[in-house]
User: What shape does this take?
Amino acid sequence: MIYQKKQAEEILLKACRELVDSGLIARTWGNVSIRLSKDLFLITPSGRAYETLEASDLVTVKIRDLSYKGDIKPSSEKEIHASVYKLRPEVDFIVHTHQPNASAVSVLGEDFPLTESNGNLRAERIVTSEERESLGTIIPTAQYGISSTKPLAANVRRAIRRNPDANVFLMKSHGALCFGADYEEAFKAAYTLEKVCGRIFEIRCGCKMPTESGALLEGEIDKGYMIHVRTPFIMAMSRRGKSISAYLDDQAQISGAVIRCIEPGNREFLKGLAEDGGSVLLKNDGALIIAADKDEAHAAATVLEKNCQAAFLALKKGAKPVDRASAELEHAFYIRKYAKRKEEGHAEKTN
Assistant: This one.
């Protein structure tokens, strides 16, 4: 259905709160939008924390040319949303997430049929008839493009044109795009996708997801906030004892192409980490993260766990990480945007 502006604002703000509370995103990586008419949609802004958004922060964008009025910039992924509204006239609500299972599975770069077998992925093993009704007949994957760029939007358009009956799309090494006729349909598709991708992950890995993890140690230090984290996939990668690549673009944005793995007793490296901040795997002992404040440290921990999950699958199946040049571009772009937001008083990152 098409919404009046005030009603659309209320629904979109509700959706922002659900994204934060649901675990479908880390921090505020992701965005949501709602159709206002055949020509306009309302979308979340770039550079604003979801928890503090007000109706006046939401941005109305023209579907035809992506133009908007005012000083508040819309999400940098607005072209992807506009593409969906152009190509799928029955869609009135879009959720773009960075949910863990879907993001991890996206690194394989595969399409996942839901009505027929695909190798060891028998349709009846990964999806129920009710779940298929929500997702469509296939989970396609749009190929990788640097976040917030025209090539990424073009890759999504190609995937949508090839799969006109799909209601969810993976975006390689990036996240997921879920949509429907309304708020409820779009979020149901997002939650269902996460369940199904969890099954795909386990079948492709040939194992159950690890659940063992140790205590989380954290606290303030002289130059910020420190977390020693032992979540399941971080522990799995730390036991491997090797540095890992950025398999997801939000990890590349935070750390660049590589996350080092060091001996826990490497005092020289740890001293530098304490000075400059960052994330490092500790051999057989999880990861150490130092950031400017508690929220930033927890965001980095969430993204690192998700990247380790993606790496866990990718290393088993031979999938490639984000290429070094793209990872470094993602990192440089993020650092510039984050520094600018801090100058403007916005410490959160939104697409």
Observations:
- The chain has twelve helices and 16 strands.
